Amino acid sequence: MKKTLQKVFRLPKGSKAFLLYLAIFLSGALFASFTQNKPQTQIQAFPIQHYTGFSLQYDSRNKIPLWTYEQISASSLNRVASRSSMHFHKDPSIYHHHQSSLKDYSKSGYDRGHMVPAADQQSSREALEKTFLLSNICPQTASLNRGLWAKLEQKTRAMVGNNREVEVITGPLFLSSPEGNKRFVKYQVIGQNEVAVPTHFFKLINSKNQKIAYIIPNQNIDPGERLEQFQVPISTLEKSSGLHFHFK
User: 1 pLDDT band (50/70/90 cuts)?
Assistant: First the structure.
């Protein structure tokens, strides 16, 4: 190595000091290249939260979940707790600048739509209560929330009858629409915290017998519409959501 360096840099033989300084310089430059881009400030966003009965990833910019995940079974659907005394409330585990509030939804014209339905988590009071955290809620048109979306949730629960357990992944989407020869993603925000109103919602149901994905517009839809017309290939959902699903 010494002879190579002497040849490349035309060093006189015996230049031990120069070689030492050169080695120190090169090692310092190498160390600097590894450390100069290392963040000195910790950055936190889009936290994954684990609650009794379900998990979600929170969109701290739009103040709604990115996705929710639950496993429903006969035991989780066992009605022990009642929702009559339950109330929507802020999620204290979310950074306060990223929280939505009840005022954001007040007089907005939108329902507070559960992503993990309360009816899926009635096996204990704690599990049921967690579904009313605003981190599990999206602005949803009333007719969709109480109509076709409710029908989809009921269908999901009914699938437990033929399966021991059903995995359900649910969330909002922000999809483009055409204007002339261009496409734009446009959506409303509500309240002082500017909670984003999704353009669509998705639900992916994974059971031992089948995997089904749905994408439904956040619009006033006739509850008599057939769910099948909103069924999409899983690959379409992955493209639209930016999520990649790995099934066991």
Answer: very low
Q: How far, in whole angstroms, is CA 246 from its chain's centroid?
A: 15
87 has catalytic annotation: no
Cα separation of 193 and 240, whole Å?
A: 25
Annotated active-site residue in 97, 98, 114, 200: 114
pLDDT digits (tens, 9 = 90+) for 98-149: 999 999 999 999 999 999 999 999 889 999 999 999 999 999 999 999 999 9
CA atoms within 13 A on the CB side of 30: 6
Contact 99, 91 (CB under 8 A): yes
Q: What is the mean pLDDT of the chain?
A: 88
pLDDT tens for each residue of 149-182:
999 999 999 999 878 899 999 999 999 999 999 9
Residue appearing with tokens 């929507």:
88
Handedness of CA 116, 120, 125, 126 (dihedral sign): negative
Which residue is associated with the tokens 């120190």?
A: 24
User: Would you say 163 and 215 are in contact if contact means Cβ atoms under 8 Å apart?
Assistant: no
Alpha helical stretches, state H, the chain:
2-9, 16-35, 102-105, 125-130, 142-146, 148-158, 234-241
